[in-house]
Amino acid sequence: MSLEKALDMVHNRKDDYLQQLFILLRQKSISTQNIGITECAKLLKNMMEEAGISSRLIETKGHPVVYGEYIKHEQAYTMLIYGHYDVQPPEPVEEWVTPSFEPSIRDGRIYGRGAGDNKGQLMAQLLAFQTYRDAFGELPINVKFVLEGEEEKGSVNLPAFVEEHKELLKADLVYTSDGSSHNSGAPLILLGVRGVLALELKAKGADWDNHSGNTGNILPNPVWQLIDLLQTMRGRDGRVLIKGFYDHIRPATAREEELLASLPFDGGQIGEKIGYSRLDMDGNTYYRKLTMEPTFNICGIEGGYTGEGVKTIIPSAASVKMDIRLIADQDPIDIYEKVCRHVERHAPDIDVKYLGSMKPSRTSADLEVVNIVAGAVQRAFQREPLIQPSLGGSLPDYVWTKILDAPSMIVPYANFDQRNHSPNENIEIDYFLNGITCTCHVIHALGAYAKHQTTEREAGR
């Protein structure tokens, strides 16, 4: 069967599809403030039903998951599509050119909170399902949808949801469209994410701030205590000195090494985009550090007086907050315990507080389905996709690879400059429509792949 009919439908239904997206964008769904969540979940359920997807709301300890499914037959190849319907708060609202929950089009872009992250991308998935079904009458595979309402607050209840509904969610592949395309403009396939451990180190001195002359050399200074501790934790070369920190890191495979070496790199352009013109490294080093090495980052430090002028005190307390990005097979709790043991040895008076974590995840680049999806993406965009073994950031990808035990792929449909989480968030209309056609191509390719697998199994009997 040819995909041309489905692709023509996307073109002919452009205005209708944009209006459907606008309906979803107008509905507030700010998870961190519990604004509009239930209303958005119900709206999305109804939209899925209208697209021909059997849908229901499944309650969690937090916000509901919108679950949908199309089951061709129980033994058919199954793709699970993940997305999230919650969005970030719109503040600062005065920086929006048009109101954040009143979508508008300017210069070929759709502006509105959630346009790129993630309502525009999840709507591309839903509309692709509808388009393919209308074009062919049925889908060649089973498709399931898990659309959560807590991604913007850390997906705190998603692991328990997946654990509890493993049989319902059983799938051969998890497919996610979230995040931004590569800065080069090429389509991007991500096979994993780094994990993260967030913690706080707190040092306590006297019960209150003291005069730095009258008690100088007498009272301990909590800021210096933290500095002294941090110097035992990380060397000047950047290597972490905590015993066992680098244990269990999964080494890159030969295929992953090839993928890293093939990624385009323009140090000057990247430096300009991140506001650091002194970026001095080659592309292989850049991508390796970004995807295959853990970090040991101080994201905030507080203690004493930092206002205008001078206040001569010995602070009574100081704290450091850290986010530590982790590589596949590292365990955040294991790392946290190693940090605690290190602190106990070097500075037992300093308190270590666990703030949260997310496990890393990586799908093997050697799987045949990676090539199948990559081929579909290439046909959709008429450009070979870049395949990156891991994202530098963290997403709850491990719930699919570790709990559901399924390979997982992330294919962003939003433009690189979508300004997600910021005022004037947007998605280019072409990116939105291309996302619909790309999902159609992926469904089509997986159908052919599943049929080929079935034929091979039957021939081998």
TrEMBL record:
<dbReference type="InterPro" id="IPR011650">
    <property type="entry name" value="Peptidase_M20_dimer"/>
</dbReference>
<dbReference type="InterPro" id="IPR051458">
    <property type="entry name" value="Cyt/Met_Dipeptidase"/>
</dbReference>
<dbReference type="Pfam" id="PF07687">
    <property type="entry name" value="M20_dimer"/>
</dbReference>
<protein>
    <submittedName>
        <fullName>Cytosol nonspecific dipeptidase</fullName>
        <ecNumber>3.4.13.18</ecNumber>
    </submittedName>
</protein>
<feature type="domain" description="Peptidase M20 dimerisation">
    <location>
        <begin position="192"/>
        <end position="349"/>
    </location>
</feature>
<dbReference type="Pfam" id="PF01546">
    <property type="entry name" value="Peptidase_M20"/>
</dbReference>
<keyword id="KW-0479">Metal-binding</keyword>
<keyword id="KW-0224">Dipeptidase</keyword>
<dbReference type="GO" id="GO:0016805">
    <property type="term" value="F:dipeptidase activity"/>
</dbReference>
<keyword id="KW-0378">Hydrolase</keyword>
<keyword id="KW-0645">Protease</keyword>
<dbReference type="InterPro" id="IPR002933">
    <property type="entry name" value="Peptidase_M20"/>
</dbReference>
